[in-house]
Amino acid sequence: MGFVLSSLKKDIARWRQDATAILLWISVPLLIGGILTLLMSGSGAKPHGVLLIADQDDSLLSSLVAGAYSKGELAELISVEKVSAAVGREKINAGKASALLIIPRGFSDAFMQSEPVTLTLRTNPSQTILPGIITDVTRVLLDIGFYAEQLFGSEIETIRQANGNRGLDDARLAALSIAIWHKIESVAPYLFPPAIDVDIVEPPPDEPGVPFALLFLPGTILMAVMFAANGLAGDYWAEHNQGTLRRLVSTPARVTGFLAGKALAAGLIITMTGGLVLIIGFLYHGITWDKLPSSLAWIFVSGIGLFAWFGALQMMASSQRAANLLTSMLLFPLLMVGGSFFPFAALPNWIAEIGRNTPNGFIVDRLTREITATSVWAIDLQSWLIVIAMVVSGLAVCAWRLKAGFARG
Amino acid sequence: MLVVDNLVKQYGDLIAVDGVSFTAGKGMVFGLLGPNGAGKSTVINCISGLLRPTGGHISVAGFDIRKEAKKAKKALGVVPQELALYEDLPAIDNLRYWGKAYGLRGEYLESRVDEVLNTAGLADRAKDLPKTFSGGMKRRLNFACGVVHKPPVMLLDEPTVGVDPQSRERLFELVEAERENGSCIVYSTHYMEEADRLCDSLAIMDHGKLIAQGTVAGLRTQLGARDVLQLSGSFPGDATKQAIRALASGGIDLEIINHEEAGLTLTLSGASQHLPAIFEALSGAGALVSETSLRSPNLETLFLLLTGKELRE
Q: Do A249 and B80 touch (CB under 8 A)?
């Protein structure tokens, strides 16, 4: 045990001098993960546009048309701003609104007399969705207006004139209400219930309330872990070149003690790099801190597992250059399919299935479970045993290679 | 202290070490002398456990290197030919680490570390990183790491390769100090002067075999008082040999060690007296001498006598 600790201290002392590498292992995933998270998260708000309305008619009907855009769910998408036609044109030309609707003078009279009238709608060509919505809504409004005029033309005219005369007396108001009611009753059999009813059914979410951007966090952490594990595993060749492995095998110290010390040191450095990304993610996404110990423990053990496997690969190669080439060739495809650049939820099912079965993808999958689950220590015992098996198998290959000639070169 | 018995190391068809046997005792420096590729490092690596011998037995301080590997390794101090240091770890931490690898702990470890730092002349640079050291200082630290656990048997594999004269002298002093302390030291080198200065006993290796073994004085005796005469030029085959044989039958004690078209090496007693007769005979045989070298008996000439070639070839 003494030599294990001695090896651990030795490697920590050596590796901490290479602060630039540690900084890169942290900053590169943070940069990539940060950009992806910001792109995917935003505030979660729906798109919102501005509709400029130049109401040159200034009548009850034109007010109703303008007001129709500010009702219900439409109000969440569109803000209505009343402007003069000149100001409206200026703003729409400057791209400061989604559309400009000009209601011409005489609109109300023309509408009531069923005479042709033109509403002008100018849309912002730099936007696509919102001007389209405004155009469709305007068309629907005009259709509704046409049928309303056909059905309630006389009543609307009465209200329009009464508005001009500052109100209706009670008797006329009652008569108007009765007339409208009779007309509604007469068309009710055709309108209610609707001939076609659409029932929208959405499947219940598996785990409710997981923001999509949060799914980037485990992959980003694993990117830092993979960079660190791969970088630190290169130390076997550094020791080989320094001749210290030759000296080691001529001492009575156990090779397993040396490897265990190095693995623990690597685990600490990896946990530090991955843990820093994890803490930043916790702060950004507002994850509860009671998940921190279990997440760090998972990073520590699985980080050692990845280090052990990268180390075994390094030692299997015939030269340092071949080792670096081999691990680099593996690293980036593994990151791609293993959920570090894109969460599994965003990958095609068959790629996600492959990804979850890669070593890093397996770790990302379980870390996602740990972070998003409602309870702490959500990773099952079997998964813990699998990463421990990774550690043991990787170190066993390293020990075999050290004894089989890697040390002497 | 160290017994190597009929050691064989084979790589496929290549026999790197062929039946090497020697014994080195307490308080002595045993030299392994031979040109590059003679098999010295392979012998050292077999003793240190870096290579598994194909055959033979090795015993260190009474422990069989195979059956009691841990005890045997604990009794060994190895100073490898190439530096074996953590260049990014302070000198003092290098010594502590290797001390712990040999099982040293606590105060004894610290006292040994201080001691070897002083002996190696590195006390004032103890906390510096070896990567800032000169080549000679690194060699001394390399040496110190091998002896920090005070081993009874030490293996020094060409420890002075690439070292400046001043540092070489310092290393010689370190080796002599260890011998004074009673260590058994196996010193591999291809520098004759190092072997001459340091070694109490010597084995000469070539092509994986021991070709001579004994004390330095004993080996000199084996050479006798014969000088070595090396001639370059043109030496026609049969005529040259006949001329030399005629000289020998005429009463001159001489012998051909090596004869090629462009060179002739002879060993003879009282060479300076017979030079005129030799040149005359060679001239009569149609030989043309362009360069002459006459050397008194030493280990180098012994190697030449045994192998027919220079030690540094």
A: no
Q: Which of B153, B143, B148, B128 is nearest to B58 (CA)?
A: B153
A1 inside 8 A of chain B by CB: no
pLDDT tens sequence across A145-182: 788 778 887 887 787 777 656 667 788 788 888 888 88
Nearest to B105 among A2, A250, A253 (CB): A2
Q: Does domain A49-183 have CATH number 1.20.144?
A: no
Distance from CA of A266 to the nearest CA of B (A): 17
Per-residue model confidence as pLDDT tens digits over A229-259: 999 999 999 999 999 999 999 999 999 999 9
In tens digits, what is the pLDDT along chain A, a chain of 409 residues? 789 999 999 999 999 988 898 889 888 888 888 888 777 765 555 667 888 999 888 887 788 888 888 777 777 788 888 899 899 888 888 888 888 999 888 888 888 777 888 888 888 887 777 788 888 888 888 888 788 778 887 887 787 777 656 667 788 788 888 888 888 888 777 777 666 666 766 656 555 567 778 889 999 999 999 999 999 999 999 999 999 999 999 999 999 999 999 999 999 999 999 999 999 999 988 899 999 999 999 999 999 999 999 999 999 999 999 999 999 999 999 999 999 988 898 888 999 999 999 999 999 999 999 999 888 899 999 999 999 999 999 999 999 999 888 987 6
* Spatial distance between the Cα atoms of A320 and A311, rounded to a whole number of angstroms: 12
CB–CB contacts below 8 A, A to B: 72
Q: Give the CA distances from residue A382 to residues A207, A362, A370, A371, in Å, rounded to whole numbers and listed in that order.
A: 22, 12, 14, 18
**Is A319's Cβ below 8 Å from some Cβ in B?**
no
- Name beta bridge partners: B250: none
Rounded CA gap, A148 and A143, in Å?
Answer: 9
Is A251 an interface residue toward B (CB < 8 Å)? yes
CB B302 within 8 A of CB B220: yes
Which residues of chain A form CATH 3.40.190?
Answer: 49-183
Which fold is adopted by the domain B225-296? Answer: Alpha-Beta Plaits (3.30.70)
Beginning with the edge strand found earlier in the chain, give each strand of the sheet holding B2-11 in spatial order.
B14-24, B2-11, B55-60, B63-64
Q: Say which residues have a Cβ less than 8 Å from residue A103's Cβ, sequence separation at least 6.
A: A53, A54, A55, A56, A57, A62, A65, A66, A119
To the question of domain B2-221 being in CATH 1.10.10.10, the answer is: no
Residues A243, B82: C-beta atoms closer than 8 Å: yes
Contact yes or no for A10 and B89 at CB 8 A: yes
In chain B, residues with a C-beta closer than 8 Å to the C-beta of A249 are 49-50
Beta-strand relationship, A49-55 and A99-103: parallel
Please say whether the beta carbons of A135 and A123 come within 8 A: yes
Nearest CB to A251 within list B45, B71, B73:
B73
- A403 part of contact set with chain B, CB < 8 Å: no
**Is A10 within 8 Å of chain B by CB?**
yes
Question: Which H or E run includes A65?
Answer: helix A60-68
Chain B residues with CB-CB distance to A3 below 8 A: 100-101
Q: Where are the domains of chain B?
A: 2-221, 225-296
